[in-house]
């Protein structure tokens, strides 16, 4: 199996990856790239686990030109793609008029036959997690009944067409974000690291794909209501230090308080305050680990007036004290 990546942000240089059948490997293989054109900063990380290849794009460009990524492969694959920041559209070079879109805070499962396809990015900031695997991996994780239920996949496979298996995509909720962050920020080494990453990847795939029935409920919401909730999620993420009340958030979303609480849980899979707490803990953990904040500084930064209250909330969610992050 071969996958070729050619990015205009990397001076048009082509990255060629060769794999055994079904991405088989007995060892963990990782690499990181940070050489881009002038004005582009960040990293691209790759993680090759047994039966899966993961590519994480996390970079930003300050130039105004439109950047593209061209991907080619010689074997049909699934792509489970998560957008944490930025949106994109892509198309098969065989059918350029049929475009697939992945918006910010969304994910989708794509079936991609052996082909070449092109990505166009919609914003200067890009943070995407791309997980490639074959049918055998999906079969081992989800079972035959799940694959048989994917009518779009059966049709796309028969006709050899690129297909998005979940319509316009599913909401990337806080639970999935936490798993993504735990996967990308693994601190273990050696065999422990490989075992941890494999287990987290399985958890991520299962959680993402088993969350799909809730899409039936979210389909009952109008597009503008989904957009309003997405805007509220962005607001929460950017204002964690502030006091966030149901009244304030529902007013900004344009709902009454009872409807806001109902549709928020319907789309994100948890109550509003549980979601806010998860984001605050996640942000504080990052500040302590990556930016050497003290526990008190991090707790204030994410909206806790009392560091002891933060410590209690952190221990309840994470299972250990925030002081262990410093150790």
From TrEMBL:
The keyword Transcription applies. This is Helix-turn-helix transcriptional regulator. SUPFAM superfamilies: Homeodomain-like. Residues 230-327 form the HTH araC/xylS-type domain. It holds the Pfam family HTH_18. It comes from the Bacteria. Keywords: DNA-binding, Transcription, Transcription regulation. InterPro entries: Homeodomain-like_sf, HTH_AraC, HTH_AraC-typ_CS, PchR_regulatory_protein.
């Amino acid at each position: 199996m071969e996958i070729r990546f050619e990015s205009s942000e990397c001076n048009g240089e082509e990255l060629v990856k060769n794999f055994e059948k079904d991405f088989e490997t007995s060892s963990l293989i990782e690499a990181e790239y940070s050489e881009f054109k002038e004005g582009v900063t960040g990293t691209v990380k790759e993680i090759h686990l047994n039966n899966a290849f993961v590519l994480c794009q996390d970079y930003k460009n300050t130039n105004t030109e439109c950047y593209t990524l061209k991907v080619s492969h010689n074997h049909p694959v699934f792509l489970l793609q998560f957008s944490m920041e930025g949106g994109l559209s892509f198309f098969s070079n065989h059918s350029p008029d049929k475009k697939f879109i992945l918006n910010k805070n969304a994910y989708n499962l794509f079936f991609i036959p052996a082909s070449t396809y092109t990505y166009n990015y919609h914003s200067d900031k890009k943070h995407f997690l791309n997980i490639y695997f074959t049918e055998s991996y999906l079969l081992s994780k989800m079972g035959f009944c799940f694959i048989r239920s994917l009518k779009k996949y059966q049709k796309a496979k028969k006709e050899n067409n690129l297909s998005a298996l979940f319509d316009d995509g599913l909401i990337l909720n806080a639970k999935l974000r936490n798993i993504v962050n735990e996967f990308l920020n693994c601190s273990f080494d050696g065999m422990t690291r490989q075992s941890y990453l494999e287990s987290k990847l399985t958890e991520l795939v299962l959680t993402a794909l088993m969350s799909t029935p809730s899409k039936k409920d979210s389909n009952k919401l109008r597009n503008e209501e989904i957009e309003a909730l997405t805007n509220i999620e962005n607001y929460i993420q950017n204002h964690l230090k502030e006091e966030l009340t149901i009244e304030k958030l529902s007013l900004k979303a344009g709902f009454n308080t009872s409807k806001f609480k109902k549709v928020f849980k319907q789309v994100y899979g948890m109550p509003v305050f549980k979601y806010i707490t998860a984001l605050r803990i996640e942000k504080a953990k990052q500040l302590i680990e990556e930016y050497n904040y003290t526990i008190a500084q991090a707790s204030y930064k994410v909206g806790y007036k009392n560091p002891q209250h933060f410590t209690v909330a952190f221990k309840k969610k994470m299972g250990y004290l925030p002081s262990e992050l410093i150790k």
